[in-house]
Amino acid sequence: MDPLLKLLHDNAALKPAQLASMLNQSEAEVAAKIKSYEAEHVILGYRTVLNEEKIGVDIVRAVIEVKITPERGGGFDRLAERIAKYSEVRSCYLMSGGYDLLVIVEGNNLREVATFVSEKLATIQGVVSTATHFMLKPYKEQGVLMSHEHNEERLAISP
């Protein structure tokens, strides 16, 4: 991976001047590379990881296992892209194993998520079954630990 992309992936808040210094390049070179990556859709967006508990955000998230019937000529892609377009869907992945798609959704409350699953997702032709798992508490999000407590407790050794 390009070192510039690695640095941005690890910390998208770094400014071009900081990146240039870290990469021993000019700020103009770094800015041009970033602009090129954005134009080529290598960089698709920038996200900030928030501790929602500290700012009082109450979002309900669920992970949904979806079994689908692949379409002739389109395989899983067409149906997966249709599901991914819903505003409730945050992420959608083709998976190996016991189900075909892993869909991560968000809603303001449990009922919103349940309504999405029962009225939108499960009713799509080609969706065979769904299994919904509600996310209760995050411990790590996008590689960032949610708690910064440094309790390095060691377990007692027993003979």
Short note summarizing the structure:
The chain is of the alpha+beta class.
Q: How is the main sheet built?
A: 4 strands, antiparallel
Q: Regarding CATH, which class of the largest domain?
A: Alpha Beta
Number of helices, counting only DSSP H or I runs of 4 residues or more: 6
Radius of gyration: 21 Å
Tertiary shape = extended
**How many structural domains are formed by the residues?**
2
Strand content is 15-25%
For the terminal residues, how far apart are their CA atoms? 48 Å
Q: Tell me the helix content.
A: 25-40%
Please mark out the parts with pLDDT under 50 across 5 or more consecutive residues, or reply none.
Answer: none
Structural class: alpha+beta
If you consult CATH, what is the topology of the largest domain? Alpha-Beta Plaits
| Number of β-strand runs | 6
Strand order of the largest sheet: 2-3-1-4
Task: Output the helix-strand order.
Answer: HHHHEHEEHEEE
Say which CATH homologous superfamily of the largest domain is assigned.
Answer: Lrp/AsnC effector binding domain/regulation of amino acid metabolism (RAM) domain
CATH architecture of the largest domain, by name, is 2-Layer Sandwich
Mean pLDDT: 92
Written account of the structure:
There is one protein chain. The protein has 159 residues and is α+β, with helices and mostly antiparallel strands. It folds into 2 domains: 3-39, Arc Repressor Mutant, subunit A, CATH 1.10.10; 53-137, 2-Layer Sandwich (Alpha-Beta Plaits), CATH 3.30.70.920. 33% of the residues lie in helices and 22% in strands. It has a 4-stranded antiparallel β-sheet with strand order 2-3-1-4. It has a two-stranded antiparallel ribbon with strand order 5-6. A hairpin with a 6-residue loop joins strand 2 (89-94) and strand 3. Helix 2 crosses helix 3. The longest helix is centred in the first third of the chain and has 13 residues, at 27-39. The chain is extended.
